[in-house]
Design a protein that fits this description.
Monooxygenase, single chain, mainly alpha
Length: 84
Amino acid sequence: MNIVTGIGLLAGSLTTIAFLPQAIKTWKTKSTRDVSLGMFITFCTGVLLWIIYGLLIEDLPVLMTNIVTFILASTILWFKLKYK
């Protein structure tokens, strides 16, 4: 792995991990009152497009970190819709 790929993986990992505390809190409290539905729909759509982009350009950091981000963000979106 070269340094550019390493930086990409580290940057993507840090921004992905940022969603973990919100996902855990939402799961534990079953409360999504302060979570914006519009923001998460828009965000999940954007992340899905990043995944497609990562596939098309065959970029591992873009692809892998956005897959994990999509899983975490769509989990929060699912909770928002379920616990509305």
